[in-house]
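Here is one chain, start to finish.
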Amino acid sequence: MALLAVSAIIGCSKEEDEAVQQPAKVYAEESPLSAYIANSGFNQVSTNFINSGSYEFGLRFSPKVKGKINAVSVNIPDSAPTIRVTIWDADTKTVLKTINISSVVANVEKKETIEPLMLQKDGKYAITFNSNDWYNRTRTGNTPITYPVAAGNISFEGYNWMATSAQSFPTNVSSTYYAGDLGFVFQQVD
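Its structure:
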């Protein structure tokens, strides 16, 4: 009987000592483009450019937390059979992922789910697309912006562009307008 009581005490003790596994926290997805447009003040669409020459253009950004990109989206003022989107390592200017979004309809956001791309906290990235159609966004009074622009867990570091149809990292910068619209879905993982 004494042996049974000791065994029961040891058994209870063992169960109490075992750590209870908590399920991993799942964070909500964020689409930072709308916050970028609101927080930057680039809310005036001055012109819709259609068939205006091919450009590679988009935003440089840095995540404030470790996370992943789950989808990309594009919205342009003309239809296009395919739009090439590129996610770059902005420090090395190398391609991390290329996504071809097909059957883009004018003035309708087209979202493409992708195999998640992991991003490091404070890493330097860029997302660009190549198109001859875009919305040209400016600030009231055409005033320039000072970067960075906070948008949830993303810090936008600048806008880059280059006249080209090639998949090349755009090296020209502007602080007086934003041409797009190109977005992504970000989700924190830690």
